[in-house]
Amino acid sequence: MPTSPKLSASLEQGGAPTSIAPALADVTASDSTLRRFLHGLPGVDAVGLEARAASLGTRSIKTTAKAYAIDLAISMVDLTTLEGADTPGKVRALGAKAVHPDPTDRTTPATAAVCVYPDMVATAKEAVAGSGVKVASVATAFPAGRAALDVKLADVRDAVAAGADEIDMVIDRGAFLAGKYLKVYDEIVAVKEACGASARLKVIFETGELSTYDNIRRASWLGMLAGADFIKTSTGKVAVNATPANTLLMLEAVRDFRAQTGVQVGVKPAGGIRTSKDAIKFLVLVNETAGEDWLDNHWFRFGASSLLNDLLMQRQKLATGRYSGPDYVTVD
Predict the structure, then answer these.
(1) Which one of 232, 278, 281, 310 is the catalytic residue?
(2) Residue-by-residue DSSP string for 265-286
(3) How much is the pLDDT for 322?
(4) Sheet order of strands, 113-116 included
(5) With contact defined as beta carbons under 8 Å apart, do 302 and 268 qualify?
């Protein structure tokens, strides 16, 4: 079966990963071949998945390991503000916090990124200049994704032109749930091309709207086939966001995808992760499922706003033996 012309073009232009095995490249040759592949993936044992996620969440962490895990989690945070009331001042303050999360302790690691709307990218970029903190921008008509493709691509190009290092796009959930997999695939490829060589692409599935674990597995493979650098659970704007079970499922997907293709893809759970205890549970999932190669902020992120405050308070508790006062951390 010949490779899809659309996929061939994306390979030449930097869309899908160039090292994807030919057998997997062929599955995007047509809507029917892509559907056959996605529906041929093993069905998810929901009870088994949730039981394993719950079991891994009970693992105890020793004090020294906990200190390491907290610092690792801080370094993995995409510190996020995505509100209609965002102002340049708020974004500058967020950037300052990302660079120095605890101004009283400069041994505290910086966060991985700040995540903002496209019109705030330039402000965020200035705020973190010279620090190594990335600027991520949501795009493609976030959070609903209900816009024409040319509008979505303009959104991406504007963010990249303003200096975004990463783009967090939302898939067309309506198209996906209607079984129009090639439409979703082609859109991801087009957005990847719009990112150019300078921005990594995170593909958001909005797992709370996909209804089933089988759909989450299919979306994960679809995103990776199309060239996602990260697959991401959620926008944080719906009732059900990141959970241990849906994140575990996505970690299994990236592990299996690398085994078949040699291409490593990151994972970003987002929304609803608020405490250090929660974050450490997710790190255990990463270690036990995908492995140590993913225990780095190049391959795993937390999409969060309030999580960082709890990590900082727990970090001080380990260092001093007592919890800080309520004014120790900034109010986001």
Answers:
(1) 232
(2) -EEE-BSS--SHHHHHHHHHHH
(3) 75
(4) 266-268, 230-232, 200-204, 166-170, 134-139, 113-116, 77-80, 302-304
(5) yes
Question: What are 196-212's pLDDT values in tens digits?
Answer: 999 999 999 999 999 99
Residue 152 appears among annotated catalytic residues? no
Q: What is the pLDDT of residues 162-189, one digit of tens each?
A: 999 999 999 999 999 999 999 999 999 9
How far from each other are the two terminal CA atoms of the chain, in whole angstroms? 53
Task: Catalytic residue, from 168, 172, 278, 310: name it.
Answer: 168
The pLDDT assigned to 4 comes to 37
| DSSP-derived 3-state class of residue 166 | strand
Distance CA 258, CA 115 (A): 27
The residue ranges of the chain whose pLDDT is under 50 are 1-19, 331-332
Q: Read off the DSSP letter of residue 301.
A: -
Who contacts 96 (Cβ-Cβ below 8 Å, separation ≥6)? Answer: 127
**Between the CA of residue 275 and those of 5, 189, 296, what are the distances in Å?**
46, 35, 19
Instruction: Give CA torsion, residues 134, 140, 143, 148, to 10 deg.
Output: 170
**Given CA atoms 201, 308, 216, 291 in this order, what sign does their dihedral have?**
positive
Contact, 167 vs 188, CB < 8 A? no
**What is the pLDDT, as a whole number, of residue 326?**
52
* DSSP, res 44: P
Q: With residue 48 as reference, give the H or E element that holds it.
A: helix 46-56
> Is 168 a known active-site residue?
yes
62 is an active site residue: no
Given the residues 192, 202, 268, 281, select the one marked as catalytic: 268
Sign of CA dihedral 287, 289, 295, 300: negative
Burial of 162 (0-12, 13-18, 19+ CB in 10 A): middle
What token pair was written down for 50?
Answer: 């949730």
- Phi-psi map region of 271: left, alpha, beta (phi>0 left; psi -120 to 50 alpha): left
